[in-house]
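User: Fold both of these, please.

Assistant: Here is the first one.
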Amino acid sequence: MNTLTVGDNAPLFTLQDENAQAVSLADFIGKKQVLVYFYPKAMTPGCTVQAQGLRDSQSQLQALNTVVFGISPDEPKRLAKFCQRDELNFTLLSDVDHHVADDFGVWGLKKFMGKEYDGIHRLSFLIGLDGKISHVFNKFKTKEHHQVVLDMLNELAK
């Protein structure tokens, strides 16, 4: 796994959202900061807590000129169920073939309960107006992710 770091150009991507509509990162560069957060699977306990925190922080994130994209290998249909069930108010993107996860360096070997498998590592990237990675969030608890992000955004806004 070769994870992107601060200062790297964010890989431009176009993925389908929860409504099977194409969403392109390029449409936001120069207009908004973008938080791209990778999560393993929609509607699982940790991913749900993380998404709910971001949902409940949307007004603060928007006030800080930040749009949120959650990316997982789930199909758009599952993402739509997740959005509906948890009343999510930000965009979820489907990376079924994990090309975008590969480009960001978050797809790789994982270990869980004695088993090894390939999957998404839970990392988040803040992409600045210039299209470069301005921060990598790699140490957080799912229930605190939104606050860690808000703290960083508020620090950058000073």
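And the second sequence with its predicted structure:
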Amino acid sequence: MDQNAIYRDLREFIVRECLEGEGSGLDADTPLLEWGVLNSITMHMLNNHIAERFSVEVPFDKRTPQNFATLRQITTLVESLQK
């Protein structure tokens, strides 16, 4: 799956599951952790989604604030795990 498709899928998931369908203003560089979009529960849900949708497990040592700070960084992480 290419980077744009990964980004779109992750954005749709976050809008649906974390933002109750309201995604206006959410872009690739929105600070998801800083703004409270992602928390421990939604991070767990997102990791499950990544495993199911992209057939990759995010290793525990990759579950860092840096890798989950923005959609751009999450997309890059997922793309790197697919290789």
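Residues 32 and 72 are 10 Å apart (CA to CA).
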